[in-house]
Design goal:
Mean pLDDT: 96
Strand content: 15-25%
Radius of gyration: 19 Å
Number of helices: 9
Distance between the termini: 38 Å
Helix content: 25-40%
Structural class: alpha/beta
Bound molecules: 5-S-methyl-1-O-phosphono-5-thio-D-ribulose
Largest sheet: 7 strands, mixed
Strand order of the largest sheet: 6-5-4-7-10-12-13
Length: 342
């Protein structure tokens, strides 16, 4: 490790990746960055249609576990504003948009509970307030994760990360990248290696772009180069996010995370997982119970006659490969995690 680069972080210009906004007529709309267009275009979409939000989550226009949680609660708020039918059906449709990140079902459940017993006329306003609270808490949580995780890094650290667990994946600031940002401001981060993250390229399209916007030195690598950069001694720590963490500390995250953890273990590199407590699933004992989302084969390749495609969007990293899990509550050995109700 060389000396640290004292960083001036330029993240504020990015703004929130999603936000529920009350408009001039008193009704509200969800504003979100359409992440499918990045890095070519930075475009915010505004919608009052709850099913359009569900579609944005399914198609990865809005993605990242904490961001889809807030989007899910916002979708239910929009349903309360205009939707028809039963709230249970709407909540089920929203929560089923993506199965692996527990943050989505967690946030939708919270929203349903918040309006139980509330009269129909007041439900939309009640959920508007809840979503605004979730937005505020998201940033505070991420900044706490950042501060806790930065303690683990030495000056001059070269970090390798996977997928995008940055500001774009949350309302603001990010989880894994929250640690990078906090440590960068303390002069501890020399460089970040961003894995491309096939098949949807969140690392290449989102993380590399986001870090460059923030002013953090970043080098983009293909997924199959991680072993080489580790073997060359270019990586001091791996820091990734999470979509669901089981009681024993097994972690579901973007496909490819497990391989990186094995590589980090082989090379004696610490492997850190950053996540808010809303990503902890106290209901499951270990990672074998985590439902892995299977996505369309078109994400992997154009159809080729006679060729089948397998496209699991996430994998499970066994707890024994994980050095520490960092939440807003502190730094934990996997298996010794503090769950919210405890
Ligand atoms: O399919 P995605 O892009 O939603 O997957 C995102 C990830 O796997 C992230 O690492 C995870 O959600 C943590 S985001 C703070």
């Amino acid at each position: 490790m060389n000396g640290g680069l004292m960083g001036r972080l330029k993240l504020e210009a990015l703004g929130k990746s999603l936000e529920l906004v009350r408009e001039q007529d008193g009704r509200f709309a969800l504003h979100y960055v359409d992440q499918r267009l990045l890095p070519k275009r930075f475009e915010r979409v505004s919608t009052r249609e709850w099913r359009r939000v569900v579609d944005a989550v399914k198609t990865l226009a809005v993605r990242g576990a904490p961001a889809i949680g807030v989007a899910g609660a916002a979708a239910l708020a929009l349903w309360c504003q205009d939707g028809e039918g039963s709230i249970e059906d709407a909540a089920h449709e929203i929560a089923s948009a993506r199965p692996t990140a527990v943050n989505l079902s967690w946030a939708v459940k919270k929203a349903v509970e918040a309006v139980s017993g509330v009269d129909h006329v007041s439900r939309a306003d009640c959920l508007f307030d809840l979503v605004k609270q979730m937005e505020t808490e998201d940033e505070l949580t991420n900044r706490a994760i950042g501060a806790n995780g930065a303690e683990l890094l030495e000056p001059g650290t070269r970090v390798l990360t996977h997928c995008n667990a940055g500001s774009l994946a949350t309302v603001f600031y990010g989880t894994a990248l929250g640690i990078v940002y906090a440590a960068f401001e303390q002069g501890k981060v020399e460089r970040v290696f961003a894995d491309e993250t096939r098949p949807v390229d969140q690392g290449a399209r989102l993380t590399a772009w986001e870090l460059a916007q923030a002013g953090v030195p970043v080098t983009l690598i293909c997924d199959d180069m991680a072993a080489t950069v580790m073997a060359q001694g270019l990586v001091d720590a791996v820091v990734v996010g999470a979509d669901r963490i089981a009681r024993n500390g097994d972690v579901a995250n973007k496909i490819g995370t497990y391989g990186l953890a094995v590589l980090a273990h082989e090379h004696g590199i610490p492997f850190y997982v950053a996540a808010p407590s809303s990503t902890l699933d106290a209901a499951i004992s270990d990672g074998s119970h985590i439902v892995i989302e299977q996505r369309d084969s078109a994400e992997v390749a154009e159809p080729i006659k006679g060729v089948d495609v397998y496209n699991p969007a996430f994998d499970v990293t066994p707890a024994h490969y994980i050095t520490r899990i960092i939440t807003e509550r502190g730094v934990f050995r996997p298996g010794e995690l503090e769950f919210p109700s405890e």
